[in-house]
Structure of Dihydropteroate synthase:
Amino acid sequence: MANDSKTWRCGKYELSFDRPRIMGVLNVTPDSFSDGGEHFDQDAAIEYGLAMLDAGADIIDVGGESTRPGFTPVNPDEEARRVLPVVRALAKEGAIVSIDTRHVAVAKAAVRCGASIVNDVTGFTDPKMVEFVKTSTCGVIVMHAGEVAAPARTHATVQLDTSAAAFVAEKAREAAVEAAREAEKPARRRRGKLLGEPKVEAKLPGGVVQPSLPLGESEPAPESEPETPAAEQAAPAAAAPETVPAATEAAPEPSDHLAAMMRRSARREEAYVPTSQLRRFTLPDSAPIMRRVMGFLSDQARTLIHAGVSRDRICIDPGPGFGKTANEDIVIQRETAKMASLGYPLMCAVSRKRFVGAVSGVTQAAARDAATFGVCLGAIQAGANIVRVHDVAGFAQFLNGYWAVAEPQPRRAFVAVGSNLGHRCDNIRAARNMIAEIPLTCVSNCSRIYESEPAYETRQDTFANAIIEIKTELAPLVLLDELMKIEAELGRDRSKKAKANGPRTIDLDLLWMDGETHGGKKLRLPHPLIGERDFVLVPLEDLMHDPARFFRYNGVEVKEPEDRVGHIVGELGRM
């Protein structure tokens, strides 16, 4: 569980799993089952997405089509109009954004707007979606949406008759049936195989067979659904979503297999079980269920790999609630360790689902967060790497408390310290001593103290600057809060009346933490301005060899010395 060696490459980001990652749910829909359309307004959705980042989310999953039981399908134009401005705004703030869609046109437009992950609830069974992701660098989430129960067997009533006449009559009937079958058999092939009805399967380039989604038998529908020309028009919406005319939601389409499956799933969940079908065991047998779920996930992951998607871009999700009853979902969750053994990052996306309500006795979806946390904890202990939740702030607090006790995990981090008011060097040394007192944190090394020109706001006194290397077991946002407390205690004024980049008694910036990438208004990791600050890069040379090369390797643009700000002009002594 701890120090999981899997990594997940998502565009320009790389997620490590030495700690479980939190995906926040952002539904830009009017009819989601859990939030009732609270974030349908785009400005409200952007604000809420940023709030989730500041509360501890590592990824924001943006969706524009509700897939709750009985959902109404949304056409791609309308879905793009809902999600693209939100994706663009969050990506601009450094967020790792996932686009939750089954429409390839929406996925393409969202990735152009900055999305780093495509979360396809239909498991990449659309060859066009496979074609798209193989040409991009985004991460992909393969989800299983389908029915897992074995078809019910019907048994005819058998009446035994031991008389010789009955035996002869039965043999005659069997012979007649066999003769009729022989007469109806089609012509044989050269090698003796019967020419039956061919099974139609989509083929990807290279001869890879693309299976169909395991949705079971759909409700009566046309043999094929005509392709909507408007779907191909969603791509221009990425460049100017405001020009896309507001489309109305599509009417219920009986040919939409996912919608039909979700309706059947809801009916199955509510169906009365007659006494003749009562089970002998509390749960159904796990073997056939897991063969279907794990078989589909493995097959789809291999299909993507054969098409050209690298293995380290693939994450899998068993799709709780999608075509599954409460009993089946519990069976699948109990087998989390088996799914984790497939070797791909594993998603636990159980937040507020029906089966969580069934096991907790909570009817209202929005009230199921505590029960969700319990199910998620069980999944994490069994090997789940990413937890998709609605209540990010609550789960981050829950996870931080659990992880601090269950998983000792000191990580390296760098804190920049600066001062240009009062006794500058004394302020820096006081900050160092207070950092050493932060819980689960120690100071492992310090640079020398340097004098630098003021940056950004040049009409002020020169600064004293240093870098403190620490080891900490705190989550980045928790550590940042502790640093802000130290600033306040040493007299730093962060009120609105204070001048941005102006004089200060102390300034503490969390620059970098091992294995952490973060976006949002409150904290950006790595610090977005590292590469242009001479007063940061020069002191770092005391602590590591070639910091410019180190940060470039971690995806940070580092400027040449002459192009930087806040140049070092002297040395003021040791810490």
About this structure: The chain has two domains: 7-148+284-405, 410-574.
